[in-house]
Amino acid sequence: MARLLAERDSTPLHLTLARRHERLARRYRQDSLAEAIKASARALKDKADLSEERDLDRQSAYDNVLAADADLDDAVRNLFNAAEIYDRQHPTTPARALLFPDGGFTSITEEPIAREPAIVLALATKLDSLGAIHALAPHAALLRTAAQGVTDALAAQETAIRVSKSADAEEEIAAAALRRQYEGNYLDARKSLTRALAERLFPATRSVSTAPPEPPKPSPAPSPV
Predict the structure, then answer these.
(1) pLDDT (tens digit, 9 = 90+) per residue, 71-104?
(2) Could you tell me the residue range of the domain that residue 38 belongs to?
(3) If we measure between CA atoms, which residue out of 76, 154, 81 comes closest to residue 120?
(4) Is 121 within the bounds of a domain?
(5) Which residue did the predictor score with more confidence, 221 or 14?
(6) Quick check: 64 and 57 in contact, CB under 8 A?
(7) Residue 138 lies in a domain
(8) Cα–Cα distances in Å, from 42 out to 16, 37, 95, 119, 188?
(9) Does residue 2 sit within a domain?
(10) How many domains does the chain have?
(11) What is the Cα gyration radius of the chain?
(12) Is residue 52 part of a domain?
């Protein structure tokens, strides 16, 4: 009996059975059925390709978030190191305690990525309070640039996730359309052809094994007399 498609079936299985059905339909000169399933299969393939591309975009956006976060951590770390050097050179006007009251930078760099930009912008504001001619002042712009990079990367990631989910939904819709066309072809074939011929147009439930037959087991050795 023909094996109809199910919702749980993967996209590759949808396309495999559709293409097999198309080839069988053409073999038995049922071109209208072949063309109908070919169109549905092509539509699903296009949506599946698009879904794969959008998933790659989503992965790329995630990588960009990680890279932007690393850049932001570097900017914070660089300021901390520069502040330590400044304090050694100017022991009477230390700056590190103002900028990093916790005594380190990990309280910033180990925060969740989404929270880091706001914390770093607050750090840049503290740095501004030292004055525009302070030796550490140039770091403020670097902090703000890095914080904006994370904000932009997170926004791009949200967009990529949303677009990827939309592409997945369109693939599911195309798969459902293919299933309906496949079943419709089967019902049409059963109505217009003999049952035996109609069944030949669709892959069977069980696939024929292509594995070579197992060799016969050797006969047991004769018992000693």
Answers:
(1) 999 999 999 999 999 999 999 999 999 999 999 9
(2) 11-200
(3) 76
(4) yes
(5) 14
(6) no
(7) yes
(8) 12, 8, 65, 50, 21
(9) no
(10) 1
(11) 33
(12) yes
